Structure formats: C-alpha cells, structure tokens
C-alpha cells in the first residue's frame, strides 16, 4: 500500500530525516517509535502531503504521489471550531473530502457512533473533554473511508481512560484500514501495532515486529527451576559456569559447552528432576528498545 524509499528532509543546515525506508501493507498497523525530536512528525507530515521531501520517493496505492482522498490524518494538536457541533464538524470534513450530502450524513452518523460520541453529536465541541476531542479527531480522519490512517501521537495528551478508549478504537480500525501512528511510548505501540519503525535523530535505527525486537536481544544466560534441591547438584556439572542461585530450587547460569542445554536436560531426566521452568533469559521489551535506540 505505502512504500517509502530513502526519504530525506533538510531544513537549511539541519537534516531532519535521512535515508528513511519502510513499507506498510493493507490492514497493517505500524508505529513510528522514537524519543521526542527524532523526526516522527516530520515524517508523517511528508507522508500526508503537508511537507515536500528534500529527496526520496513515496509510493501510495501503486502511484508516485499522495492521494489525499484515500488518506486520513490526525495531527498531534488538532484544532476544532468550538462553536460547531460534532455533527456539523464531520459534515464540514466530509464536504472537504468531496462526499455527497447523503454520504456525509450517513458516514458522520456511523463514525460518531463508532467513536462513542453519538449521544453528544449535537453538543458544541467547545464543551468536549480532551478525550472526546481526540475521538472526534479520529472520526474526521475516517469520515471519507480512507485506505490509510495517519495519526500523530494520538494518545500522548490523554488521561489513562482516554488513552485506553483511543487504543481500543485503533484495534478495531486495523480490521478495515492500514494505520501509521507515531508515539514515544513503547506500551502504546505494544498494544496495537504489528510492526515498528524505530527512529532517532532522523535515522531509522531498527524495523520489525516487537517479537523480533525482543528475540534479537536475548542473552547467554539461562534459568532453571525444579522441585528438587539444586545447591550441590548444579556446581557438579562441568558444562555450567557463572551459577547464581535464586533459591535452593532455582538458578541462573551460562553454558561453556556447545551442547550444554542437551547435557543439562539429559542429566535432569536421568536424576528424575521435575522441571518447573527452563528458559533462555532475554531483555524486557523496554530494555531491548533502549539497547537498540542507543546503539
């Protein structure tokens, strides 16, 4: 659906984005993940057609230009006319997208119901909470039924309840359209995205799934827990080193033999140990993220 190749953006002497490449497939949710100032908003603005790239190509729906009628966009700080009602605002957004009168009415009602604003659709936006405004922003981005939804920090300014509501809506939207959203919060990406594109200082540091991110950051340390006492048993194994006991029944260690795992499991079976847990330790997702972004 969307292919970005060697995208660059330069402001005078400052390179904001350099050599960014990634793809988004139909119904895929991709997170642009990175600290503040990493180039996330600049990237989204180029993809939304609001900024002209210095170099590189953007291919959308097989064409070398952005078709804004097939794209929905929600900026980080959306502005709403406080005198308008939610229904009036969506009708206005639908008119800008070229929808007919009947289609605007139908889609506006459907989107307001979808984002949970049906009961306040005739109230003025000036009286809406931050969470309600964000849901209205999502509704305007979807009212023309786009193929790709671009969201800039969609939950960063919300309280926990509002954050949960918007992330839940995004989960549902994945079923009918592709989503690209930016965030600096790893937990938000973990909740909804299929892939991440990790940015720092305008450069891509890593791309892949969160499972891939966790797996590539595995350590050489293993953990074993059994029902029996390991205090004297583990130190007798010549293929183990760096043994650290967590309890008499559990320990962490590394192997000094290529077939150490096989030897350990064979010895456990031979001595009829009841294995409760045996695993290779890995970084937490947050630790893996920090390790990659700081490389």
TrEMBL record:
SUPFAM superfamilies: P-loop containing nucleoside triphosphate hydrolases. The keyword DNA-binding does not apply. CDD domains: ABC_DR_subfamily_A (cd03230). Keywords: ATP-binding, Nucleotide-binding, Transport. One of its GO terms (molecular function) is ATP hydrolysis activity. Residues 2-226 form the ABC transporter domain. InterPro entries: AAA+_ATPase, ABC_transporter-like_ATP-bd, ABC_transporter-like_CS, P-loop_NTPase. Signal peptide: none annotated. Belongs to the ABC transporter superfamily. This is Multidrug ABC transporter ATP-binding protein. It comes from Lederbergia galactosidilytica.
């Amino acid at each position: 659906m969307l292919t970005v190749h060697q995208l660059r953006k330069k402001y005078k002497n400052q390179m904001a984005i350099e050599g960014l490449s990634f793809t988004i497939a139909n119904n895929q949710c991709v997170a642009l993940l990175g600290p503040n100032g990493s180039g996330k908003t600049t990237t989204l603005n180029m993809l939304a057609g609001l900024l002209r790239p210095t170099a590189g190509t953007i291919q959308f729906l097989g064409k070398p230009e952005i078709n804004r009628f097939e794209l929905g966009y929600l900026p980080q700080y959306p502005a709403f006319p406080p005198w308008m009602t939610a229904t009036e605002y969506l009708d206005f957004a639908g008119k800008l997208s070229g929808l007919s009168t009947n289609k605007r009415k139908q889609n506006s009602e459907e989107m307001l119901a979808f984002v949970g604003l049906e009961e306040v659709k005739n109230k003025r936006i000036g009286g809406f909470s931050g969470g309600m405004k964000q849901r209205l922003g999502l509704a305007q981005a979807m009212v023309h039924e786009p193929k790709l939804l671009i969201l800039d920090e969609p939950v960063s300014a919300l309280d926990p309840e509002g954050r949960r509501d918007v992330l839940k809506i995004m989960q549902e939207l994945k079923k009918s359209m592709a989503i690209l959203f930016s965030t600096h919060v790893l937990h938000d990406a973990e909740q909804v995205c299929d892939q991440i594109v990790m940015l720092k200082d305008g450069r891509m540091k890593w791309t892949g799934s969160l499972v891939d991110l966790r797996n590539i950051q595995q350590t050489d340390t293993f953990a074993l827990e059994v029902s029996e006492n390991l205090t004297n048993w583990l130190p007798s194994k010549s293929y183990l080193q760096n043994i650290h006991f967590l309890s008499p029944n559990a320990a962490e260690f590394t192997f000094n033999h290529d077939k150490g795992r096989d030897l350990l499991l064979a010895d456990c079976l031979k001595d009829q140990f009841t294995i409760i847990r045996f695993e290779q330790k890995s970084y937490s997702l947050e630790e893996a993220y920090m390790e990659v972004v700081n490389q």
